[in-house]
Description:
A: 108 residues, alpha+beta, two-stranded antiparallel ribbon, 4 helices, 2 strands, elongated, PadR family transcriptional regulator (chain A), WH-like_DNA-bd_sf (chain A), WH_DNA-bd_sf (chain A), Tscrpt_reg_PadR_N (chain A)
Amino acid sequence: MGRAYLGEFEELVLLAVAVLQGDAYGVVIAAELKQRTNRISSLSGVHIALYRLEEKGFVSSELGGATMNRGGHRKRLFTVTATGRQTLNEMRIVHNDLWDSIPTPSLA
Amino acid sequence: MANHTPTPPAWADRLLAWLCPPHLLEELLGDLHEQFAEQVTDLGEQKARQLYVVEIVKFIRPYFLKRRVGHFAQPMSIPVSQGAHRFKTNEFPQPFFLHPDMLRNYAKIAFRTLWRSKGYATINVVGLAVAFCISLFLFLIAYLQLTFDSFHEDGDRIFQTYFFSNDPEQASRSAGMPLPLMPALKTDYPEIEAAARFIVVRKSLVEYKGRYFDKSVYLTDPDFFKLFSFPLRKGNPESALRDLSNVVISENMAQTLFGIEDPMGKPVELGSDGNRKQYIVSGVLADAPYNSTIHYDALIRVENLPDYQSAKDSWGASSHQVFVKLPPNIDQTTFESRLKAFAVKYFHGSLDDLKKKGAKPDERGDVFAVRLQKLADVHFGRELSGGKGAPIALIYVLMGIAFFILLIACINFINLSVARSFTRAKEVGIRKSLGALKKQLFVQIWGESTVICLIGFGVGLLLSYLLLPVFNATFDSKLTLDYVAQPGFIGLMLLVFALITFVAGGYPAWQMAKFNPVEVLKGKISLKRPGILRNSLIVTQFTLSCLLTCCTIIALQQIDFLRQQPLGFQKEQVISIPVGSQVNGRQVLQRLRNKLASDPTVLAITGSGVNLGKGKDRVTARGVLGITYKGKDIATDWLLVDYDYLKTLNIKLLAGRDFDRAYPTDSVNRVVITESMARMMGEANAVGTLLRDDHDTSGVKSQIIGIISDFHLYSLADENKPITMHLSHNEAIHYVFVRVAPQNLANSMDKLKNVWKEVAPQSEFMGSFLDENVDAWYQDEEMLSRVFSLAASIAILLSCIGLFAIALMVIEQRTKEIGIRKVLGASTPTIILVLSKDFIKLVIIALGIAIPLAWYGMHTWLKGYPFRIEISAWVFVVVALAAILITFATVSFHSIKAALMNPVKSLRSE
Lengths: 108, 910
């Protein structure tokens, strides 16, 4: 396959970035993942995934505003790039294809 | 509670900052803090803190660590191909604050800033350089003294033996050992690794191929080479002193005697007149380094001592030092306790005597004991070496002065930096508002100080290199910068340097880095803030300077007092000539008398066993006789003189008569004593009485024929003993005194020199006037006072430089105030007073501290002198007035300029 490899956790993070629509940064992504998958992901893990995605060109980032509860530190906001979106689409097609190919003898 | 905002633990943040690549730190910290804030609301503060730490620990992952390490390896390289677009944002990566590029930048800026403020930099560099230079010299002196004898391997196992006797009158120690002691020690204690006797003799005559030299020949045992680590350049340490006729010479002596010839196996003649013997050179020993207690030209066996056969079994006479080397597994205390048995075995006589006198055992249970002194202490043991050792207190005083001077320079440095920090506050404020971190500013400013220190240090070293010959000449010392290269000394210097840069450079830098940029840019940082620190530092500076000045003046007064004291003899117009070992003093004296008998400019000639003052041969000798006279213990100087002694030295005869050639018995058993001797004996009319010892039943008794007034045979720094003078037929005369007519003294000296060549051709003429000799008595004090004077003037100079610069800055900052005062009608003197007042107040406080300290210190020092001055109050008054005057002069230099300035100029800028 010609496209870049995307790990399971990376895929989830990428999806979360897509879901959050321009308001995606570390804590929010971790919260989103926790809420949706019910698994606790550490901030460091999330960030590593994000940076990898950025290096692969699936997300882009810019620095956003600082708030009081961030101790005056700015946040880095991530958005899905066109490549990222395309990859997600391809992944989805692959998944769907696979699902569709499962024989269902007991299908009611 | 309402106001309390929970914050995550700061140390965890710092840990993260350390772990995490710097360019990612901000966003990660932000996320962590945000999560923390949420967790505080959900789970409570304590739990949130725990989770926060756990979260941070999870950052220890290869991903982050690798990028962090990579960040150092390639500071500015960012992967362009893939990650480049993320830096399209307006964010710059934050480099680590000690990044090499930044360091280069700090250095560059430091040099530019210093170049811009040349005056400030010069004052600092000059101050530091002078202080470094002087303290280098003083530390060097101290270092040399403190490392005396430290070059011996196993130096910690080498000891000198000494006797301790707990006499009820005064416990005493003595290092003079009897000849049989060392062999007995070696037999009784086979564990001793090496032991050697060491007899320090007068300069001895050496003859090689008809040429004569005066050399220090030392008598010792073959173990010498096992004991000490003077390297043997030629010859075998095992056999070098095997034969009684072996002589081991120093490289220096080999050079003078043999030049380029090989000295090994060559015969030389050694010994004083009538006692000469041929020796064969069996080894060449390296010259003893300057910081060695033992300085030899040649070594021969102890058995060559003229009266060795008769003295070798005599336990009563004490003549020499004994050094032993203990094996590594026995320490000093253990061995000293083993020596108790030794003392009982060989010294029961002394023990019984002491007990009879009522001596009690000391805290170690000893009445009489043989004890050990560490080799390292030998140089400082004044008691054991008969007062010849270096006073260790003086060395600490020197180090203290060096430290004081450095401290004063540091205070200048701190004060100037702090004062300047206000002019630089704007720069700091702007840098901060542009995003410089506190630590970056610290490193930058501290870097500037370090550059100044480095330059100052370099200039100081250069200065000391250039001034070393001058210093050596002035202080009669033999310092070389070779010692500077020794690891111990380098360590010391590095420590001093590090301390100065850290303290003197670090503190102002830290202060400046702390400035709040908002306040600075609003102009809110006021002048009064560093007041207490600055003022106390100025006070310290002036306290030290005034202390040194007072001490110097008092020390100089004391030396002057010692010089001015009537000595009891007339020191003017008397030439003293050391006879030397090449010739017979008695014969020379006779020949001299014959030659000069008809010379009208020669008033009197005499001879003596002891020089007065310190002559050119620098030898001092003292013979003290202790007797018990009618139940009284009397210690008297036992002085060998010749006819005309009283006449030559103008000593007053009080009763009886002087020695006279008309009475043949005068040269056998007649003595002349001083007043104080007569007083000690308790005889109202001593003339005619017999001087005898209660215990001595045999021997010839001396009859007292005359009483003279007291005179000082030795320096006034030493205690004066009563003097008993005697004549002799055979005792060696070591010095000739000639009284010359007062007209044209230099001529008389030249004439005497020529005559000397005829009467004693082998002996170098080393004549000198007695008043010079007497001055030489006080050379230690002289040296001390010179060091003090130098230190005091440097201290004052440095303090004034500092004050000068601070006054300049303070006045610069107060220009507006001065302008306003002038506009409102203040006169020029008022303004000068206003400006100087603050500084003069500080100096008065400093005086208040320094004067009592100086009084106490000098009072203690003076107590050591039997003849001493009273400290007079005018010294302090003069110093105080001078200090105030100097301060006023220093400060008013700027104040006058400021006061005369046109107020229009200073006020217009607003």
